[in-house]
């Protein structure tokens, strides 16, 4: 099971594990910070999923294109 996860979903596995570790570190600072823990874990999973799919983490060119198309109406 672990070998299959590592071979097919390496980025998601590492991202989720890193998110959980960082989340536990943050969690020890207070009980009510569990929402932050869940958010950190989700961010780790999201970044790992992007790495597995070989997508850009921050699609700046796409964002720039969308913003420039939207603001072009005011010129």
Number of domains: 1
What percent of residues adopt helix (DSSP H or I)?
Answer: over 70%
* Strand proportion: under 5%
> H/E series, N to C?
HHHH
Tally of DSSP β-strands = 0
Low-confidence stretches: none
Indicate the mean pLDDT: 79
Shape: flat
Q: If helices are DSSP runs of H or I spanning 4 or more residues, what is the number of helices?
A: 4
- For the record, give the distance between the C-alpha atoms at the N and C termini, rounded to a whole number: 57 Å
User: What can be said about the biggest beta sheet?
Assistant: none
Structural class of the secondary structure composition? mainly alpha
Which radius of gyration do the C-alpha atoms yield? 17 Å
Can you tell me about this structure?
This protein is mainly alpha-helical. The chain has one domain (2-74). It has 4 helices and no strands. It starts with a helix and ends with a helix.
Could you outline the blueprint of secondary structure elements for this entry?
Elements: H1 2-8, H2 10-27, H3 34-52, H4 60-71
